[in-house]
Amino acid sequence: MAEQEGRSAIGWLGCASAIRPIDDIEVRAMRAAPYIRGKDVLDIGAGEGRLSWVIAASARSVVGVDPDVAAVRAARREARRRGLANVRFVSRPAQDLRLGRERFDTALFSWSL
């Protein structure tokens, strides 16, 4: 037990994902609606798309970027399953976006550090 006393709450839970708020609550808490509604949004650190699904409901388009190939693969499957035509996912680190001439109105970087 003494060995465990020095661990952080995140260490006890295994990862920060376990302490994140529910996705739609997180977007509302950011008061992001004016920056998302009808906009082209870049979701940096999108993972499996947890916030991209919420954002896609009101955004013109969403591009999710994440270095985790498996997470991006899962996000793409889920986008197809949901029939979302305005969402796409790219597997690469945020430091190397390589999105060409694409422009975004809003960039979201949530729980990615």
Summarize the structure.
36% of the residues lie in helices and 18% in strands. The protein has 113 residues and is an alpha/beta fold.
What does this molecule look like?
This protein is of the alpha/beta class and 113 residues long. The protein has a single domain (23-109), classed as Rossmann fold (3-Layer(aba) Sandwich), CATH 3.40.50. Helices cover 36% and strands 18% of the residues. The protein has a 4-stranded parallel β-sheet, with helices on one face. The chain is globular, with a radius of gyration of 16 Å. The chain starts with a helix and ends with a strand.
Task: Give me the secondary-structure topology.
Blueprint: H1 2-5, H2 9-13, H3 23-29, H4 33-36, E1 40-44, H5 50-56, E2 61-66, H6 69-82, E3 87-91, E4 106-109
Parallel strand pairs: 1-2, 1-4, 2-3
Helix pairs in contact: 3-5
Which shape, going by the Cα principal axes?
A: globular
Number of self-contained structural domains = 1
Mean pLDDT: 77
CATH topology: Rossmann fold
Biggest sheet layout: 4 strands, parallel
Question: Would you count the extended β strands for me?
Answer: 4
Radius of gyration: 16 Å
N-to-C series of helices and strands: HHHHEHEHEE
Low-confidence stretches: 1-16
Structural class designation: alpha/beta
Strand content: 15-25%
| End-to-end C-alpha gap | 29 Å
Helix content: 25-40%
The CATH architecture name reads: 3-Layer(aba) Sandwich
Strand arrangement across the biggest beta sheet: 3-2-1-4
- The CATH superfamily label reads Vaccinia Virus protein VP39
CATH class: Alpha Beta
Count of DSSP H/I helices: 6
Write down the oligomeric state. single chain
